[in-house]
Design a protein that fits this description.
Length: 1076
């Protein structure tokens, strides 16, 4: 059918709204939230404090929806907020708030303006290209060879490109606030993984600062001002000490610059970027120049060994001057005496001195000698391949090793992987600036991937060009000892080596400053999220939000890396932390893709879960390839942080993938569990605990939860529940408050499980619904635990009695076990230790074996561990008690249960006058409660009188029963005597009937039941009154509901005089087996 709509122009409505007066405008301003989408400290997700919702509504055309306008805003308001939403950078909101609180005028923040090139591409290029390219790439090419170096570069670049693809998918799946990898991982994998990997990323960034500072000091002391060394090279450890002293001073200076103001670092960023670009251009220009005119870089060889260039000026053994042969300075280095005839170093005598060009150029064909690597131990002499030489024993040249170029460390392929990998890190620079980008979802994937492609091309080309232009002995000369202590890559550059030396110096210094700027802010973000409690102090800073305390911690950790004093040893540590971070970025993308959650809708479409798993596998492989022991240490650190956050951290719900993965795993497990019933060997009590709440909605019997903890020990299912009377509409808030109180009590009593409070019109229906529907699928309860209703005699209209008996009936109908605890408040707490004593089991009837299993489960807990188990069973008239005891002992042996066994014989005694009197009082009370509508006060008075009378009568009867011994063995004479006593008892009963006619009107079934309860109680009290816990078979309720109160009276008599009692009723199936 057609529907008529009224079109309202937006301009008119806005205008009319503006004409309503100043008062309405003020209300509108107050009701309109800020567009910043500010988040409170430790906020879980920007979605929860969404700036899109505007609660203000003053229209009349949509009156049908006005009652829900606070939670469901008008579409026009929503679209307006979406169009004007701005994602501020990290820290801007906090700075504005702090400045406003101090009375300073609020800073006006302009919207993000950066595009892909300036905001993502250039920062990534600047962070990726750095110290390893300038100081170690030539040495890696010389040591690993061109093929080995290409393999290293390919593995590392493949790792970063796969990680960038996964990161792009995550970054384009909605708005990513500033926070970079930490935000993406924590919101994708949860606070535990996010905190662990975030701290690893923080440590990686901090050690990156150490790496860049060490590179800066190495360039300064080796290539710029070597005279500034404080310790002489002859002293042991002099180079390391120089690095430590100058590195500490440089760290203090950089930390001071960062503390004074980040704006100065940001202003210098363009200068540092220019240094990187100019240095790269100088390298390519130098390579092109070698085609025209190779540089003059002489290198002196003795045989095939490379010599250090200091200590001599001519690469000759002797020189002719005026027809006189004179030894050169080189001769004096290898000969103790300048005399020509004097015996010199044997290798020096047998081999010639040759001078070669260190950089012969592209057309020289030197690339054929550099294809393969040359690894070796520490202090191995660097030798030229295919150069003729006469070898000599090593022991004859020991004193002159100091004149050769030597390996400073032992080299292998795995070590080079760990050293090179930091040169491909920095791919997160774009995602860290997501708040400054015009369109982060477009700029981050494009800029990051293009930066990786560009830098990968640079690395691949540099490996090939270095191997094609530079001699192998020069490539393997890490510190330029054979070329007069000059930077090898600087010798290749054009127009001057100083272009690359100065450029690399400022590039490393700038990268160090940026690391010291970014790492404290990352730590501050983690601290403000509140997931790591002991880091909360680092969430505070200066008045404008600068992370002062985080900066101090960062400087302290950075100093540890500087004290290592070796770039080659710090680089693998840095690689581990970044590889761990990249691994979890790939894992986050793979998990989200496989889960196919509805919110997973990345705009970047060129991803697949197989690529993410490949990237994750590659990261893990590189970790163990680089250094297996470093990898294990980092994994242990991450694991400890994970468990700490899981144990002590704040609970966060970020809609993470791990939670979704858990839900999927739980779903598949539940479906599988439902396919087949639980086998007897796997059966354990899955508890539904029915709690009672007081008037304040707090748990009335906390010891019920303690007993649950002791019985379950964290294993299996536990559902703690309660029922509130009323309607959910009026008591929904009470139900939620009750659940909070129950969860708090469960936490206090260390009860692991689920909590559920329902609202029902009456308690009986509520308990019935819980028994029927609690649990899910195969994870449903099979045992109900409840407390004995001690006040059932004083309850109005016998509601308490009816609720209890109906619960017993429904558990029986549902084939569930039932545990009823008497005096639950007297049960031991979790911190108590029962020293000795017994747990007594009275096995009257067999209902599945739960009675045997419960003591075993309780003794697993430290509260009951020292208690012994005793099992009593009752022998009837025709039973052989001796054989019963042997059979029971054998049965306990097959069940693998340690328990003392005892058989108690109960002879068929006459029904005592006490039993008749007890039954008479019981039936009279039932009739009175049915026929008379007594007030609560009168009923309680009557019940108290009946209770006092019964107590006095039972005390006298117990005294008489205690004088008659309990016989343990039946004989023929005893059997005849017992039959005679039965005949006499019948005649005696007839005589009693003749004396008290009212006894003859009693229900004989009730008389027999009361007789059984009295006799069993006498025996149990005589044997188990001192036991810590008595487990007893619970009789079933009567089929007719008219006898509910009588049933309660029978149970009351049965457990009278015992402190801690657990009535046990089986579920109708075998729960224990003797088979393996």
């Amino acid at each position: 059918m057609p529907t008529n709509f009224t079109v309202v122009p937006v301009e008119d409505s806005v205008t009319s709204g503006q004409e309503e007066g100043a008062e309405g405008d003020e209300d509108t301003e107050e009701a309109t939230p800020e567009l910043s989408g500010r988040r409170s400290k430790g906020d879980e997700s920007p979605i929860e404090s969404s700036p899109f919702f505007n609660s203000y509504y003053d229209g009349k055309n949509m009156a049908l929806f006005e009652e829900e306008i606070d939670s469901t805003p008008m579409v026009s308001s929503l679209l307006n907020k979406l169009a004007n939403y701005t994602n501020l950078t990290q820290g801007v909101i906090e700075h504005e708030e702090d400045e406003n609180d101090d009375g300073v005028k609020r800073v006006t923040y302009k919207g993000p303006q950066m595009g892909t090139f300036i905001g993502v591409y250039l920062p990534c290029v600047q962070n990726i290209l750095g110290v390893i390219l300038f100081l170690r790439l030539t040495w890696i090419v010389g040591t690993a060879g061109i093929l080995g170096s290409l393999a290293i570069v390919f593995m590392c670049c493949a790792c970063t490109i796969l990680t960038a693809i996964s990161m792009s998918a995550i970054a384009t799946n909605g708005v990513v606030p500033a926070g970079g990898a930490y935000y993406m991982i924590s919101r994708s994998l949860g606070p535990e993984f996010g905190g662990a990997v975030g701290l690893c990323f923080y440590l990686g960034t901090t050690f990156a600062g150490s790496l860049y500072i060490l590179g800066t000091i190495e360039i300064l002391l080796t290539y710029i001002v070597p005279e500034a060394k404080l310790f002489s090279s002859e002293q042991p450890g002099a180079d390391e000490n120089n690095m430590r002293v100058y590195g500490t001073c440089c760290l203090a200076l950089m930390a001071l610059v960062v503390f004074v103001g980040v704006k100065y670092v940001n202003k210098l960023a363009l200068v540092f970027l220019s240094c990187v670009v100019l240095s790269i251009m100088a390298i390519y220009a130098g390579v092109i120049k070698t085609l025209i005119e190779p540089p003059n870089v002489p290198v002196c060889l003795l045989g095939n060994r490379s010599l250090q260039s200091h200590g001599f000026d001519l690469c000759q053994k002797e020189v002719d001057e005026n027809n006189v042969t004179r030894p050169t300075e080189l001769w004096k280095l290898f000969c103790p005496n300048s005399s020509i005839e004097f015996s010199c170093d044997e290798y020096f005598i047998l081999n010639n001195v040759t001078q070669i060009q260190g950089i012969p150029g592209l057309l020289s064909g030197v690339i054929s000698d550099n294809w393969w690597g040359e690894y070796g131990p520490s202090a191995m002499v660097v030798e030229k391949r295919n150069q003729p030489s006469v070898p000599v024993p090593e022991d004859k040249a020991e004193g002159h090793h100091g004149h050769y170029v030597l390996n400073d460390i032992a080299t292998c392929f795995t070590l080079l992987v760990g050293i090179f990998f930091p040169s491909v890190t920095g791919i997160m620079a774009g995602s860290n600036r997501s708040g400054d980008l015009k369109d982060a979802q477009k700029s981050i994937p494009t800029g990051t991937i293009m930066a990786i492609v560009t830098t990968s091309f640079i690395y691949f080309s540099c490996v090939l060009l270095f191997g094609a232009c530079i001699e192998g002995v020069v490539l393997r000369d890490k510190f330029g000892d054979s070329v007069e202590k000059q930077l090898v890559i600087g010798l290749l550059s054009w127009p001057s080596p100083w272009v690359l030396v100065i450029g690399s110096f400022f590039s490393c210094a700038g990268a160090g400053l940026q690391s010291l700027t970014g790492a404290p802010r990352l730590l501050q973000a983690i601290a403000r999220d509140g997931i790591v409690p002991f880091l909360q102090v680092f969430g505070h800073g200066k008045y404008n939000g600068e992370p002062t305390w985080a900066l101090l911690l960062t400087a302290g950790i950075c100093e540890i890396g500087i004290l290592i004093a070796s770039l080659d040893f710090v680089a693998p540590i840095l690689s581990m932390f970044f590889l761990m971070c990249y691994l979890f970025v790939n894992l986050a993308c793979a998990v989200q893709t496989l889960l196919r959650t509805p919110n997973w809708r990345p705009r970047f479409k060129f991803y697949h879960w197989t690529l993410s798993f490949l990237g994750m596998s590659l990261c893990l492989s590189l970790m163990f390839i680089s250094s297996w022991y470093y990898a294990l240490v980092v994994m242990v650190i991450a694991g400890c942080i994970y468990k700490y956050i899981e144990y002590r951290g704040a609970e966060k719900e970020w809609g993470d993938g791990i939670r979704g993965l858990s839900l999927n795993a739980a779903y598949y497990a539940l479906v599988k569990l439902e396919d087949a019933p639980t086998h007897t060997k796997n059966w354990r009590p899955q508890l539904l605990v029915l709690l009672k709440l007081d008037t304040d909605l707090a748990v009335k019997h906390p010891r019920m939860l303690s007993f649950t903890t002791q019985l379950k020990a964290g294993k299996g299912l536990t559902i703690v529940s309660s029922v509130l009377e009323g309607s959910y509409k009026t008591r929904g808030s009470d139900a939620k408050h009750s659940e909070q109180n129950v969860r708090s009590a469960m936490s206090t009593e260390r009860t692991k499980g689920f909590c559920h409070v329902v609202v029902s019109s009456n308690l009986r229906d509520g308990f019935s619904h819980l028994i029927q529907s609690a649990g899910l699928g195969g994870m449903k309860h099979n045992t109900v635990l409840m407390a004995w209703p001690t006040n059932w005699k004083q309850a109005d209209n016998s509601i308490c009695c009816t609720n209890f008996t109906e619960t017993v009936r429904e558990t029986t109908a549902a084939h569930q076990c039932l545990l009823v605890a008497k005096n639950i408040d007297h049960f031991p707490a979790n911190d108590e230790r029962l020293d000795g004593g017994t747990i007594d089991v009275w096995w009257i009837v067999h209902d599945g074996g739960l009675l045997m299993l419960l003591p075993f489960l309780l003794r697993q807990h430290k509260v009951w561990r020292k208690c012994k188990t005793r099992i009593f069973t009752v022998a009837q008239l025709d039973d052989n008690s001796i054989q019963m005891k042997k059979d029971l002992q054998r049965f306990m042996y097959h069940l693998r249960l340690d328990a003392e066994v005892e058989v108690v014989e109960m002879h068929a005694s006459d029904i005592s006058a006490f039993t008749y009197e007890k039954t008479l009082v019981m039936e009279q009370r039932s009739q009175m409660l049915k026929q008379m509508q007594l007030s609560k006060t009168e009923r309680e008075r009557e019940a108290q009188l009946i209770h006092d009378r019964n107590t006095s009568a039972h005390a006298s009867q117990s005294h008489r029963a205690a004088t008659s011994p309990v016989h343990m063995t039946w004989t023929k004479e005893k059997l005849v005597a017992e039959r005679n006593r039965n005949r006499e008892a019948i005649m005696g009963v007839r005589d009693i009937f003749n004396m008290k006619p009212e006894w003859g009107n009693l229900n004989q079934s009730n008389v027999r039941r009361m007789h059984t309860a009295v006799k069993l109680n006498e025996v149990v009290v005589s044997k188990s009154q001192e036991a810590h816990l008595v487990l007893l078979n619970m009789p079933g309720p009567p089929k007719s509901r008219e006898g509910d109160e009588n049933y309660m009276e029978f149970l009351e008599v049965l457990i009278e005089g015992l402190d801690r009692v657990l009535l046990v009723r089986g579920g109708g199936r075998e729960l224990i087996t003797i088979y393996s």
